[in-house]
Design a protein that fits this description.
Blueprint: H1 2-71, H2 73-93, H3 99-124, H4 126-140, H5 147-160, H6 165-183, H7 190-206
Length: 207
């Protein structure tokens, strides 16, 4: 009996050590999995941000091309000159009594062709705008401080005026700042900080 009672403390210690070992192993596994999950989430966020910026560039580029070809005052002036030239030519070559009608019809053809081309170009902006909306949607659901609002502001600024380079650039700067904060690795836990601080104090004391 004495032998059994003497063995109890050792057995209890072995159980405690086994429990602590299992608990520590499980804690490290959870911490490793948490780090992997966080790293995967940051990678996904970075990919979302890359697609978002690419979509922004696609919209602004398409908008610049549209404005250069159809929306600028120079383009409109050229169209008016062409319409006038066609009208004058038709007026000069028309039969008596039909000159004004022929001139009006010739000018109308030129302007109608421009209207159709401009409308088609405007419709082509729908695809990059849709891409921007799709790219911005997951970012607007993020919980990191300021990130969702920053992404929303970028989308709003482009949809309201894709030619407002100053506003778009400003909103993108805010977005980049929020993204940078969101992509930073998490700070070390408090326990690890205390462990390092204690080790530093030991070094200082021994020195």
């Amino acid at each position: 009996m004495d032998v059994l009672f003497n063995a109890l403390p050792g057995a209890a210690l072995a159980v405690v050590l086994l429990f602590l070992g299992t608990w520590e192993s499980d804690r490290r596994t959870r911490r490793t999995e948490a780090r992997k999950t966080a790293a995967a989430d940051r990678a996904a966020l970075e990919a979302q941000a890359d697609e978002f910026v690419a979509a922004v560039m696609a919209v602004t580029t398409a908008g610049v091309v549209h404005d250069a070809m159809w929306g600028g005052w120079k383009t409109r002036a050229v169209v008016l000159i062409q319409a006038l030239a066609q009208g004058v030519s038709a007026y000069a070559g028309a039969a008596s009594g039909k000159a004004f009608s022929a001139a009006n019809e010739a000018a109308h053809v030129v302007i109608s062709e421009w209207d159709r081309g401009s409308a088609k170009s405007a419709q082509e902006l729908a695809a990059p705008l849709a891409r921007l909306g799709s790219a911005g949607a997951p970012l607007m659901r993020r919980q990191e401080p300021g990130l969702a609002d920053a992404a929303n502001e970028v989308v709003v600024s482009i949809r309201e005026n894709y030619a407002d380079a100053e506003r778009i650039s400003s909103s993108l700067s805010v977005f980049r700042e929020a993204l940078g904060s969101a992509l930073e690795p998490p700070a070390p836990s408090r326990r690890r900080w205390f462990r390092r601080r204690g080790a530093d104090q030991i070094v200082e004391t021994s020195g």
